UniProtKB/TrEMBL annotation:
Gene3D superfamilies according to UniProt: MetI-like
Lipid bilayer topology: Multi-pass membrane protein
Annotated keywords: Membrane, Transmembrane, Transmembrane helix, Transport
Coiled coil: none
Keyword DNA repair: no
Annotated protein name in UniProt: ABC transporter permease
Family: Belongs to the binding-protein-dependent transport system permease family.
Entry's localization field: Cell membrane; Membrane
Upper taxonomic lineage: Bacteria, Bacillati, Bacillota, Clostridia, Lachnospirales
Amino acid sequence: MLEWLKSVVSDPDILSAVRVTFTMAVCSTGIASVLGITFGLMLERFRFPGKKIVIRLNRTLMGSPPVVVGLIVYLLLMRRGPLGPLSLLFTIQGMVIAQTLIITPIICGMIYSYLRRSAPSIREFAVTMGATRWQTTGLIIRELRREIYFCMVTGFGRSISEVGAVMLVGGNIRGRTRTMTTTISLLKSQGIFTEGVALGILLLVMAFILQWICDILQREESENENY
């Protein structure tokens, strides 16, 4: 079993797919986290005309089919599209754009839900202590850091498991934009199930290790707080 996994993992095409997957996932999750957390904070903090419509629109985008987002990004990045001169189609950067558009509404919606339940009481406490607006915002983020972490992990999980959007925007080019999920899809269509299963196991193991490391960091943080 170990020799079989070793032979699969040592395959240059699979190593390239792993590299592309994590490059895309880390970049898109990072950008989407900054945008989603910021928009979530603003959505909870401010009142403005049409706020309910914006919230409903964001909830709609949270469940939007990734292949539709991929098609929209493809039309924007294609040679005759408005962003065609940037030559981002069939590149990792183009895939990051598509993934960011998919993940940002998810993180924004989750952050807004957490803030709606907890932020008013935190803000009230901060006001009684004479905190400024920026200090209050910092306190809210600190108090909800575990929820924010969960949102980021959720976004990362969505990113590494995506197929439709990255297939359209990236083109599934060998050695350049082929990810782990698109490789699995390609292997399945070719009837090569052994390598496909191995790659799927590798994907699950990587996701488990990431979650495990984050849980350890959280546990250590909680123990330090208790001391």
